[in-house]
Structure prediction request, 287 residues.
Amino acid sequence: MTVLDTRPGTAQIAIREARTRHYLMCAPEHFEVSYAINPWMDLDNPVDADRARVQWEILRNTYLSLGHRVDLIDALPGQPDMVFAANGGLVVGGRAYGAKFRFPERAAEGGAYAAWLTGHGLRVTEPAHVNEGEGDFLALGTMILAGTGFRTSLPAHIEAAEAVDRPVVSLELVDPRFYHLDVAVAVLDDGNGEAPADIAYYPGAFSAHSQRTLRELFPDAIVCSEADARVLGLNAVSDGHHVVLPAEATELATSLRGRGYSPVPVDLGEFIKSGGSVKCCTMELHR
Prediction:
C-alpha cells in the first residue's frame, strides 16, 4: 500500500507499507570462483569463504528481522553458484517454472531447485528452453519482465508465460556486464497492493527498443546511474517499503528515500566477485 503525506508544509513523498514475503536461499557452503562464465568472474580474484558466509548470514538475518519468511535449500557439492537462488526458477501464485542453465557448470542446479519446489507443494513446469529463473524473470502484479540476450532464450519467455499464466514483456540486454535482468532492473513495488508497480533500471543495459518499452511502461521509474549499476545496486530486493541493496549504491539509496522507500544497505562484496549480490542470493516465492 502507498499513500501520500499531505500534511500542510510537507513534501509529496509516498508513505509506503511493506508486505511480508517468502524467500528461498542457499547457504554458500561451496561458494567460490572456480570458473569464469561472466565478466565479473576472475580466477585470480578468489573468494574469502569465511567472509562470504558472514555476509550471507547478515543478508538472511536482515530478511528475518524485517519479518519475512526464509526457507533454505541444501547446497550441492561441486555447485559453487548454487548460492544464487534467484536463478533456480520462477514461482508465481503456486505455479513454478524450472530453470535450464546456459552453461554446463550450473546444469545440476536446475534439478535441485525443481525438486525442492516440488517437495514443497508447487507444480513445476519442466523447461524445454534455456532460462535462468528470476535472474531473467521479474514478477510484477500484472506481468513478468523477462530478459534475453545473454542467458535466457526468447522461446523461454513464451514457455514461462504459459507456465505461470502471466503475460511476459521481453527486454533485450546488450551490455555483457549486465547479463541478467536482475542486475539491470530492480522491482521496488510489484503492484500487488494499492500502489502501481514501480521499478528502478539502468538504461545502458538495454537495446534502444527495450529502453523505449521501459519508458512507456514505467514513465516514473528511477533511472539508476552507471556507477551504481556497476556495483550491482539494482540487484536489490524490496518488500514494498524496505529495499535491501548493496551498500556501495549510495546515489540509488538517496533516490529511494526520495520516493518514500527505506534503503537497507548490506555488504555482499564477496558475491560481486562472481557477478551477484542481494537479489541473486534470493528467490521470492511470489503469491
Notes: Residues 49-65 form the longest helix (17 residues).
